[in-house]
Amino acid sequence: MRGSGTRIIAAAVAGMAVGLLVQTAPAGMVVSPLKQEVTVKPGRTATFYVSLSNRARNPQATPLSAHLEVMDFAVNEAGAVVFKPPGTLKNSASNWITLTKADVTLEPDRGEEIECTINAPYSAAGEYYSAIVVTMGRKSRTASGVHVDFRIASGVFVTVPGRTFPKRARVASCEVVWPGQKGSRNLFPEGPEGCCAEKVPGTFLPEPLKVVAVLQNTGQARFEAAGQVRISNSQGRTVFKGPMTTKRARVLGGDTRRFECVLDKPLPPCEYTVRVEFDYGSQWGKAQARLPLVISAEQSALLAKAAETGPPTPGKAPGAAIEVVPKALAAKVPPGGFRSLKLTIKNTGQETVRCKATVVGPADAPSPASWILLTSDTFVLAEARSKNLPLVIIVPSEAAGSYKATLVLEVGEVDGDRQRIEVPIELTVKGGKG
Amino acid sequence: MWDRTLRVILAVLGCVTCGLALGATGWVQPEYTVTLSPAFAGAGQTRTGSTVLTLNHDGPATIQASVVQAGDEVLSHDTTADTLVTSYSLTGAALGASADADWVSSSQFVAPARSYTVEGSGLSDITFHVRGAAAPLRANDAGAYSASIVLTVTW
User: Are the C-beta atoms of residues A355 and A345 closer than 8 Å to each other?
Assistant: First the structure.
């Protein structure tokens, strides 16, 4: 009874959704999910799914094909995924996984769930990893130019219960990296053509001063890590505090991961102590490190100059400990369609702040501000808290072309001065179905 | 059965609210070719090309470049196998701080350590740039040059 009722609800919802999707969904092949957790008991079999769908709906759309394969993966210190042949890595689950299909061809507006079966050995208690790599239909190399093929990797994080693996971590290294010092990210690589003055159109970001720490997972259990750095002066007063960021916060057993924090505040010449602390979800404690930092008059001047003349971090108001991700919002929406976007606002400071969000349009051009709805425009953020701010965009059916607006976030400590963060919004109203 | 039905409902609701299935990620185009125009005609020339790739995603993702066979990333003459000094870059607001600020050599572009973080959700435009340059002190063969890159999206 419950099954049939649910099927009716699902069919009704699907029917409504298909009507809306005709207007909103873009073309192309999509894969879902991008990662998933799978638990399988030792000696037992479990099933999971990877879904593919061809979103094209226009009459001229052609079928899309894709090839699926199971691969091992490792994550390097920089947080990049490195794919390896199946069964070649220590914590591989690839040889336990079978796919019901390796090649799929989907007509426009069609989808398919690929069933994946995992069979864990009896003595396999622990954590294992694989990826289902979906390669979109590939044509031969073209006569001239660069041919770009696409793959989408769906991560499979397998847990075989039976033993408890405590989370363990340590800070393997921690240093303050001055611009030009070994270990700093080279934004202008000196390759064979690195000397060329021509720049790619984009934003110029000078290399900043950073605190760099490498966190090592010394256990066998994976964890998500979050870190912060505090710099205190010789009197023990905290003069700088900021989050440590990384490209991939999930650290697998045995892996190391590089975290960074940009030091964007001028500090007078003095002896300091840098404390780095990582929360990795362990009930027993946090991974910590501290190191002395002596800032000379010359280095202090360099810091002051960088803080004074360097471009402000996109999406971050000078002086306010607020981080906004992403730094810009962009969407393509068909006329009469709608789109949902999300902005994450994080208070990385030590004070509770009050935020007010508004959307404003340009004075000298057609403004899309009235199409953009904020579900919450005034809110309070306590220290270390973040908030997702959804924006719903409903485009009139007569709209066409490019439109620009700005999300203005006024941030201030309660009873304090307000500061302003601007997040550009770019809307392209184009196309129709498919 | 109940779980699977629920997943269908959630996926469909996800489509309604975001224009995208829950956890769904995909390139809007199945493949792309960046052309270098006009074609190479002799020594001392540099050509650039770019195209906008659109990624449909409902959360943060990572992009990495790779090749099927070593050397695929280098622009090579179709008949003589002569090569050009090849550089790439990815730019776009969605890449945030991971966007390239300058050309990246072809070997660095496909190096395993290199990755780009795509922030936010929805449709993100990412511009793929390529540059081919004649080697210093040597005349390259005239004609068409081609290369091949695989862009992989990961979680």
Answer: yes
